[in-house]
Amino acid sequence: MSVRYNVSTLLQEPIGAVREQAIDSRVLVGDEPTVERVHGAATLLRTKAGVLVTAGLQGTSHDQCSRCLKAVDVPMRLAIREEFAASVDANTGMALPAPEDPDMFRIDASHMLDLEEAIRQTWTAVLPMKPLCRPDCAGLCPRCGRDLNLGACGCRPEADERWSALRALAHELERK
Questions:
Q1: Residues 56, 41 contacting (CB under 8 angstroms)
Q2: Contacts of 96 by beta carbon, 8 Å cutoff, 6+ apart
Q3: Helix (H, G, I), strand (E, B) or coil at 77
Q4: Which residues partner with 86 through β-bridges?
Q5: How far apart are CA 30 and CA 36, in angstroms?
Q6: Distance, CA of 18 to CA of 36 (rounded, Å)
Q7: Which of 36, 120, 129, 151 is most buried as measured by Cβ atoms within 10 A of its Cβ?
Q8: Residues sharing a CB contact under 8 Å with residue 30, sequence separation 6 or more, in sequence order
Q9: How does pLDDT run across 87-127, given as a tens digit for each residue?
């Protein structure tokens, strides 16, 4: 299914007219684009400038745990509230002036409202910076690469040389 909607009849109705749309689609999302399924519902509200879209969507981001590198599915909850400006008057077919905000989403000349870019931007904004397979993930040993969730490895802790003077003082105090 697509996330493109023909809103020509909605644009011909008075301000305040509403349409409800069920969404169940695959869209290109994320920083490293992948096709993911999103589903939910959207309300399309006729405004003076075009159509206000309010949508609540869910999906799943397939990612890697930032600590242990295992595959992890991150549940995504998207709340979209964006106004789409009409580019052509639905009654006359005349081109409308561009909106003052250059980043405002536009309804194309065929009266098609495309939600995919709004979904992609929202998805990218809510992606966790460091996804985890679980909150207490121990990660990987930086020396041998062992998954520390499975148990400790045999590596000795690395000594930070910046603390060597303090360690020497501690040893000297222990001898006294």
A1: yes
A2: 85, 86, 87, 88, 89
A3: strand
A4: 107
A5: 9
A6: 28
A7: 36
A8: 36, 61, 120, 123, 124, 127
A9: 998 888 888 888 889 999 999 999 999 999 999 999 999 99
